[in-house]
Structures are given as structure tokens and as C-alpha cells.
Amino acid sequence: MGRPREVTDEQIVVAARRCFLQRGAGVSAADIASELGVSHTTLFNRFGSKEGLMLAALGPPKEIDWVAALDAGPDARPIREQLVEHAKVMSAYFQDLQAGLGILQAAGIDPKKAYRERKGESAPEQAYRALVGWLRRAQDEHRLSKCDIDTLASTILGALHGWAFTARVCGHSTSAAASQHYVERFVELLWNGIGDTLE
Question: Which residues bind DNA (predicted)?
């Protein structure tokens, strides 16, 4: 008998997410395990239950990739150009998040359970903190007009998250092109109020 295949938790999460998004909440742990070449007990040993696996695969991530880019900026390019760039990345993130949360809700699982076991700064807190910092630095450099940065950050995150939610529940296109078009129009609208005339 061959030695059991070694798989990382990350490989399991990626495969499970793909299966759940393609086939819905009804896909069995045995089917996911089969794709990975392991037994379904391996999945339960790592995640405790199918619900635990679903929360790990479909819930909010512990860390958000694009926070580091916000923490490092803004750079010397025009602020509006950078804001569009960051907003497109955030929009894609919120669409992925909504896709996962939709499957969890369809399975009757409260997505808040994904946060209960986590210590430290949550993913939404990371996103808000990083965006506030980026906007404040841009304003300190006189590259944004005077406005309340906390409100601006909440408006941006809320609009991008809201669009992802609306697109999912109303059946609007969630293609990359549709998302980018929305972001460009949103930033154009926002820029009328926050753009610095010197930028």
C-alpha cells in the first residue's frame, strides 16, 4: 500500500473553495478529498467538520494581500490613478468574499463564526486601517482636498463592498471588465469632492 499523500492546510483550503464555488455547499468532503488524493478523514482531522472546512475555505481571510500595498503608499504617481488601481484590487477582493459568503449563507452557516476564533486585528479592521493611513498620507501631502478621512475610507470600502453584494444578489455581471468599469465611474464621481486642484 502506498504512503498517504502529504497535503498542506492551504492546499486543502484552495481545493475546497474551488469545489464549493463550482458545485455549491452540497459537495461532499469525500469528493474534495478525492481531488486531493487523501481520505476525507484527513480533512476532518485538520478542520474538525465539514462546517469548519467551509468556514476556512469560504470565510474572510485572516490577512488581506493588498493591505501591504496601501501601507507602502502613496507613491509619486497621480493620486487619482493610484486610487483607481487600489479600488480595482479591493473590488475584486469583495467579489471573491461575497461569492464565499453566499455559499456559507446557502448552507445555513453564519459567516461571523469565521471571526470568533481569530486573535488580533480582523481582515476588515486591517483594510480600514490601511486605507485610512493611505488617504491621510495623501491628504498630508496636499494631494487630496480637506475632508474627513475616516468617512472617506468608510465610503470607499462601503461602496465597493456594496457593489459586490448587489451584483451577487441582483445577478449583475461580476466580470473583471464590469468591476473595473464600476470602479472607474465611482472614483470619477468621488473625485469631484476629494480631488486636489494641484494634482
Answer: 28-47
Angle at 57 between CA 52 and CA 61, to 5 degrees: 105
Count of beta carbons in the 10 Å neighbourhood of residue 117: 8
Helices 50-58 and 79-106, interaxial angle, to 10°? Answer: 160
CA 72 to chain centre: 19
pTM of the entire structure?
0.83
Beta-carbon contacts of residue 89 (< 8 Å; ≥ 6 apart): 66, 69
Residue 2 pLDDT level (bands cut at 50, 70, 90): very low
Report how far residue 98's alpha carbon sits from residue 160's, in angstroms, rounded to the nearest whole number: 11
Distance of alpha carbon 114 from alpha carbon 130, whole angstroms:
21
Cα(109)–Cα(115) distance, integer angstroms: 13
Cis-peptide, bond into residue 61, ω within 30° of zero:
no
> Do you know the residue count of the chain?
199
Q: Measuring CA to CA, which residue among 188, 189, 182 is closest to residue 165?
A: 182
Confidence of residue 147 (pLDDT cuts 50, 70, 90): very high
Residue appearing with cell numbers 488580533: 120
| Rounded Cα–Cα distance for residues 35 and 38 (Å) | 8
> CA 18 to CA 150: how far, in whole Å?
35
Count of CB atoms situated within 10 Å of the CB of 37: 12
Q: List the grid coordinates of 179.
A: 468591476
3-state secondary structure of 119: coil
